[in-house]
Please model this.
Amino acid sequence: HRPADAEGPADGHHPADAGGPAPDPCPAERLLRRRLDEALTRAAAQQPCWPHPERAHAVVEQLHRADPIVAPEETARLSDRLASVARGEAFVLQGGDCAETFVDNTESHLRANLRLLLRMAAVLTRVGGLPVVTIARMAGQYAKPRSNAVDELGLPVYRGDIVNSAEPTLAARTPDPQRMLRAHAHASGAMDVVRGFGAGGVYVSHELLLLDYERTGLWADASGPEPRLASGLAHFLWVGERTRQLDGAHVAFAELLSNPIGLKIGPSVTPELAVEYVERLDPHRTPGRLTLVSRMGHRLVRDVLPPIVEKVKASGHQVIWQCDPMHGNTRQSANGYKTRHFDHVLDEIAGFFEVHRGLGTHPGGIHVEVTGEDVTECLGGASAIAETDLPARYRTACDPRLNAEQSGELAARVAELLGG
Ligand code: PEP
Ligand code: MN
Model:
């Protein structure tokens, strides 16, 4: 079945209205459509203000007719594997670029990142002693949440290639809905590379952020405990730290998906709020349905995470605990680069393992920003990258990534923690 579509107000804070309803839906589909409508009329943070909403509507219509990026049976297989992670029998490695870009959507870049992920997974399996489920941030990781709506020049901020261009001119920064079509085509091409890579089960994921994109490619899925919508845009989708408002559109949307989903949780999340999220997003207590991605920063993780884990554990839900050691450890270097230190990244993961070992819960995975290329974006590691080295090969479109060497070193250290 083609998707339930939503109708909602079309201003800058709500996704574009895509037109009339599809013909003759069955009752489950009608219910899903109503719930999707309801989700999409809620306030949505971090959405672009399309200058011509009617053009965005036309693009959404076109995207409804586009081929899916992923196949439902692949997503079902990932759900099974994530259930084994939630039971403590496997480990998740999720990683890739902070922001994919159209120019870097090349076979060589994609293959370098895939090769790196598989090398990391091999170390984790061999030394860590658990099967590894590898999920790439790839084939759709084009939308970025930003702290400010305008940059230091007063221009609309870059929101990822799916929305606008990073080039600092007003024309380039003006949100262009046609970019959603280009993003879809690029994602489809990237997925071909993932499949051609052959390694078997590199699943793809991206942040569930740009709702005019995410609302397309949805199918009614009756295979689970309640009728839900399957997204054909990725196997796994996560809600970010800036869009996890309990009454907002993103959480309501994620609730409707049958795909396995993630939720980033930063240090402001209380144990009570964590349990509210878990009850909303995993109402049927499905092991591995929900991944809680903690990104607390290395200084706070040992204090903030334990009461959250205890309270969620006591609720009886079998979530996956995943550590994002990147986003709580970002800082500005003296020479003006957004960076992270390898030691802080490793220390947050060490703290995450200490917390879970202490509470008897499974440290289920890591979520990292990495690239197979030899960039100089993060500090430290075996090559001791210093602030003065950053300008040499600082290439990221958004956040700083660990390079191939730093990532390999990280995997080896995490594998020791996992096996120890
Ligand atoms: C990201 O994963 O790139 C991101 C924006 O993370 P967070 O939502 O945790 O800040
Ligand atoms: Mn990032």
User: Anything to note?
Assistant: Residues 98, 327, 369, 398-399 surround manganese (II) ion (ligand 2) (CB under 6 Å). Confidence is low (pLDDT under 50) at residues 1-14, 17-22.
